[in-house]
Amino acid sequence: MRNILISSAIAAALILAGCGGGSEPKKEESKAATPAATAPVDEANAATVTGKVSFTGDKPKIPTIDMSANPACARAHSTPAKSEEVVINDNGTLRNVLLYVKGVPDRQYPTPSTAATLDQKGCMYGPHVIAVMAGQNIEIRNNDPTNHNIHPLPKINQEWNESQAPGSEPKMRTFAREEMDPPIAVKCNVHPWMRSYIAVSNTPYIAVTGDDGSFTIKGLPPGSYTVTAWHEKYGKKEMPVTVAAKDSKTVDFSYDGK
């Protein structure tokens, strides 16, 4: 009997030793999977890239949008609404061009606390193109006297499709993953002409041209990068740029409509 008890004790000790030995590597693997913290960008030595996006070709004919099927939408416009696929500003520049910087340091950048806004007014999305960081709030509003249906069509992030009644509270939504190439298209299942794009970036180095066709990207660490321009109809263009500490560089783009 004594021999049996000794054998049992030895076996139990071996089992416990085996369990303890197997758990420690799992802890190490968990530690190894956690990314190391990175230093914040030195804002005092950060650089700025500015530029504009010109249109040099013949101005295309901009189609009007037929909203007659929904009188509430049609009444919101004193003249027929125009497509926003191509918007050429009075100074010969392009509106709604997305700009972003590739090759920036791989680090955790703080997510903006201010929400971006996607409005529905006159049965049109506005702005037509917005750029946000992953995890940043997007406040979606319905300022029309009619129902809308917000339906983003991501390829990486989770797709969703929600109705929004007139006078309802704004919806607050986020996208968890970077999705820039191409940005996320957004449609309205109620009004098929409604279209917008949401670019989701892991970095703050993003911009969209407005009514003067210009852009500014601040806070870049010194280094060599690629600035990318994206337009929904005319596609992508890229230009290299190298910035030193406290530097300011100009990067201009041009589309000819071909």
Give a structural overview.
About 15% of the residues lie in helices and about 35% in strands. It is mainly beta. It has one domain: Cupredoxins -  blue copper proteins (Immunoglobulin-like, Sandwich), CATH 2.60.40. It has a five-stranded mixed beta sheet with strand order 5-11-10-7-8, with no helix packed on it. The longest helix is centred in the N-terminal third of the chain and has 32 residues. The N terminus is likely disordered.
Which keywords apply here?
258 residues; mainly beta; Immunoglobulin-like; five-stranded mixed beta sheet; four-stranded mixed beta sheet; 2 helices; 17 strands; disordered N terminus
Helical amount: 10-25%
Total helices: the number is 2
Largest sheet: 5 strands, mixed
First and last CA, distance: 93 Å
| Overall pLDDT | 88
Number of strands: 17
Poorly predicted regions? 1-37
Shape category: globular
Class from secondary-structure proportions: mainly beta
Number of domains: 1
Strand content: 35-45%
Q: What's the gyration radius in Å? A: 26 Å
In which order are the strands of the major sheet placed? 5-11-10-7-8
SSE order, one letter for each helix or strand: HEHEEEEEEEEEEEEEEEE
Q: If you consult CATH, what is the topology?
A: Immunoglobulin-like
CATH architecture: Sandwich
Text of the CATH class: Mainly Beta
- Quaternary state reads single chain
Give me the CATH superfamily: Cupredoxins -  blue copper proteins
